[in-house]
Amino acid sequence: MSDIGPLLRVDDLEVVFTGRGGKRFQALDGVSLDIRPGETVGLVGESGSGKTTIGRAILGLVPASAGRITFDGRDITRLPARERRELAKDIQVVFQDPYTSLNPSMTIADILAEPLLIQGWTRNDAYGRVRELLDRVHLPSDASSRLPREFSGGQRQRIAIARAIALGPRLIICDEPVSALDLTTQARVLDLLVELQEDTGAAYLFVSHDLGVVRHISHRVTVLYRGDIVEQGDVDQVTARPEHPYTQRLFMSAPVADVAEQRARRERRRQLAAEGEK
Hints:
about 280 residues; alpha/beta; 6-stranded mixed beta sheet; 4-stranded antiparallel beta sheet; 10 strands; about 25% strand; globular
């Protein structure tokens, strides 16, 4: 994978929000990263670090104040709306909450067929594709006639993933896709994402606050703190032997089964936090 050029490049990206009274808040300050075809880059940081803003900027949901976003060699930083809609074939998203991201009044078949119909598929082809998608995410075929409220959280996230892969995208932004799920369901959904990546070759930008979750799925990891990248590298290095104090605190925050080790981690995290405040 190291010899393959990047599918996505983010260069010196800045995002500044203006609030009440003209007060400016710099959400991202010169962030740069890249993702190769078929690769998962984990983007990790605590709430407010700016990680979700990166995903939203790539999707065109928030404007870049400075910097450049390039997809497959094409500058997509400030695409017009029509070209952005066309890009949906190649870049898709899985949101954190699988319920609010699904229209509660539509059947699963209609939810999954909608992006296909928008792209010009015939109804027969679109609904035939729906059957394939349900099978790909390991849901029964009779799920197509049901409504989102009839499914568990994990099943709804599988439906959201099915919608994301419907058009065969080359990049999927996964924005905290398992944080609302219990640990067992998290593991199953992560395994599904790995399976689908192996089958389709899609690249993932996987956004999470949990270094343990990122370790499970990523090839490389980028750590974000207050809009700045503080550490980047191979997943084993960053998640098992972090160098930056902030990454070390994230590592110490990850839950472990051993009570004594968990207590020791909490104490070490307090020490790191105290050192960081000095």
